[in-house]
């Protein structure tokens, strides 16, 4: 399933690349920034921590000393790691300070080829527990609360992942975060394989062998993440060691943030600058809520009552167009002058579904269930994100076509014979324009449009008379056959769905744009 998802995503993306073949080199897709979060399930809730205290014969009055024991062990281990590696151990007085900037400065002053760069400590917000008296029960008990505590940052130059860091909370429940970067991973892998590339900040402006680079990037999904993350956690948390008392169980890993980006590398900044303003304008003006929902694989029906919004803002790097559907988003922006990046971020995976096995009433059953936050559904997340990026680029493939409008519209304005004769289309007539607009509606981008969908789009109030309904159905069938004869749509195999062809996207969008453009602009 993953293989075919990758193939289909690349095929859809090819339309954008072919459209701008004279301007672009190729494209790569893969992880950008990935933030893993680990929790100790046995002590991450009140009952679990209460059980641990009972097992260690610790009363509520000794809770502070019990927690300080864990915190002292974490701090001692952090100091040992820095001392053994001969690297700096530094306190950062403000949580708002850029730790990565400080790390790069330390790395420039004291270079290291591989291993620990430094250990930083900083007081930051956290979720922990406290002892409170229950007035009704007249006894002490544990309650979760928001607080601040000391956190330790371990920055490494890893042999596989390049610059990465681990953030460990020193106060119970000892939550941990691991941040890696897919672009850093790819850079280190290409260095080993001898693939020449040019990297600026967090993107590549040139790669000598793009197919090999993409194959390396795809390997990142199939890594044994649970084993890798547990190894890193055991290196910094002494309470996971075999001889620790009490010894805690391994972390449960989830993805807190995961950005999946598709980078289109243009041949020069001038080549991207020629087309990027038109892409931004098209994305803001033409991508309505139904289309944005379909980019992210969401259905447009009565069950959706969330918020969809699109914004455009100017950053230091360039202009960014962002579309947000509840907690998840897709955005487009230009990086380093010559890279067009489309990036999908899934902050709430439960909005999507994955085909997996569940236990129902004691039996294992397979079906489509909500996507989980755990790393077990990582492949499905990649499939969804890659599909979203590909659909977004496909929708942009019609922008800025250099051909005159008459060359695009003239072929469909002639009768065709395949093998029976079909009349010529009237691209800018009200009837044809309504048909084009219905076929190109955003809610049909993902799966396609059926006869019934088209009838409902063109006639929101269906006739009550059965004979009239049959007449409407037959008329819609003839319209679909006409569009198909002119090569504007094709039928999806073994289904009743129709999708626009690449030429159909160009012709129908051109006709609609021409019809909606003001006369003053045409005469300018």
Describe the structure.
It contains 16 helices and 19 strands. The protein is α+β, with helices and mostly antiparallel strands and 524 residues long. A hairpin with a 6-residue loop joins strand 18 (489-491) and strand 19 (498-500). Helix 1 runs parallel beside helix 10 (378-396) and helix 13 packs across helix 14 (466-485).
Low-confidence stretches: 1-9
Number of strands: 19
User: Approximately how much helix is present in the residues?
Assistant: 25-40%
**Largest beta-sheet characterization:** 11 strands, mixed
Number of helices: 16
Radius of gyration from CA coordinates:
28 Å
- Going across the biggest sheet, name each strand in turn: 2-3-4-5-6-1-9-13-12-11-10
Can you give the mean pLDDT? 89
Shape: globular
**Structural class per helix/strand content?**
alpha+beta
What percent strand? Answer: 25-35%
Keywords:
29% strand, globular, two-stranded antiparallel ribbon, 524 residues, alpha+beta
What's the arrangement of secondary structure elements?
Layout: H1 2-19, E1 24-39, H2 46-55, H3 63-85, E2 89-91, H4 99-109, E3 115-134, E4 139-158, E5 162-169, E6 176-181, H5 182-193, E7 197-200, E8 203-207, H6 210-219, H7 225-236, E9 252-266, H8 269-286, H9 289-295, E10 308-314, E11 319-325, E12 328-335, E13 339-345, E14 353-360, E15 363-370, H10 378-396, H11 405-409, E16 416-417, E17 421-422, H12 430-439, H13 451-458, H14 466-485, E18 489-491, E19 498-500, H15 502-516, H16 519-523
Parallel strand pairs: 2-3
Antiparallel strand pairs: 1-6, 1-9, 3-4, 4-5, 5-6, 7-8, 9-13, 10-11, 11-12, 12-13, 14-15, 16-17, 18-19
């Amino acid at each position: 399933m993953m293989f075919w998802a990758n193939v289909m995503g690349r095929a859809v993306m090819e339309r954008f690349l072919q459209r701008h073949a004279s301007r672009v080199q190729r494209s790569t897709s893969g992880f950008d920034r990935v933030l893993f979060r680990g929790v100790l399930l046995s002590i991450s809730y009140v009952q679990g921590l209460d059980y641990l205290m009972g097992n260690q014969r610790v009363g509520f009055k000794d809770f502070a000393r019990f927690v300080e024991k864990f915190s002292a062990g974490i701090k001692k281990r952090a100091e040992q790691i820095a001392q053994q590696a001969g690297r700096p151990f530094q306190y950062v007085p403000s949580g708002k300070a850029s730790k990565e900037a400080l790390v790069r400065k330390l790395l420039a002053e004291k270079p290291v080829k591989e291993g620990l760069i430094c250990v930083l400590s900083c007081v930051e917000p956290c979720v922990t527990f406290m002892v409170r008296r229950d007035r009704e029960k007249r006894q002490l008990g544990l309650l979760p609360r928001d607080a601040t505590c000391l956190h330790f940052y371990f920055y490494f130059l890893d042999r596989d992942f390049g610059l990465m860091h681990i953030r460990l909370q020193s106060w119970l429940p000892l939550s941990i975060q691991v941040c890696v970067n897919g672009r850093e991973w790819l850079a280190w892998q290409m260095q080993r394989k001898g693939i020449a590339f040019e990297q600026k900040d967090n993107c590549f402006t040139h790669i000598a062998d793009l197919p090999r680079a993409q194959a390396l990037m795809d390997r990142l999904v199939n890594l044994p993440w649970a084993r890798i993350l547990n190894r890193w956690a055991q290196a910094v948390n002494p309470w996971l060691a075999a001889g620790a008392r009490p010894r805690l169980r391994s972390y449960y890993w989830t993805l807190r943030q995961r950005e999946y980006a598709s980078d289109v590398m243009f041949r020069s900044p001038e080549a991207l600058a020629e087309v990027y303003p038109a892409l931004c304008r098209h994305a803001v003006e033409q991508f309505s809520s139904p289309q944005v929902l379909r980019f992210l694989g969401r259905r447009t029906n009565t069950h959706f009552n969330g918020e969809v919004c699109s914004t455009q803002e100017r950053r230091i790097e360039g202009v960014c167009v962002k579309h947000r559907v509840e907690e998840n988003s897709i955005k487009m922006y230009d990086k380093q002058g010559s890279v067009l990046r489309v990036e999908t971020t899934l902050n709430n995976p439960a909005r999507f579904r994955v085909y997996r096995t569940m236990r129902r009433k004691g039996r294992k059953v397979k079906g489509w269930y909500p996507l989980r936050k755990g790393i077990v559904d990582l492949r499905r997340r990649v499939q969804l994100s890659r599909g979203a990026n590909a659909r977004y680029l496909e929708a942009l493939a019609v922008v800025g076509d250099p051909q005159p409008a008459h060359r695009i519209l003239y072929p469909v304005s002639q009768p065709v014979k395949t093998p029976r004769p079909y009349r010529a289309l009237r691209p800018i007539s009200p009837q044809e324009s309504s048909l084009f607009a219905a076929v190109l509606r955003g809610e049909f981008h993902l799966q396609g449009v059926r006869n019934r969908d088209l009838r409902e789009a063109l006639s929101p109030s269906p006739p009550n008379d059965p004979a009239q309904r049959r007449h409407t159905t037959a008329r819609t069938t003839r319209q679909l056959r006409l569009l198909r004869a002119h090569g504007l749509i094709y039928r999806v195999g073994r289904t009743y769905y129709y999708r626009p062809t690449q030429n159909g996207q160009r012709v129908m969008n051109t006709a609609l744009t021409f019809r909606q453009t003001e006369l003053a602009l045409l005469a300018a």
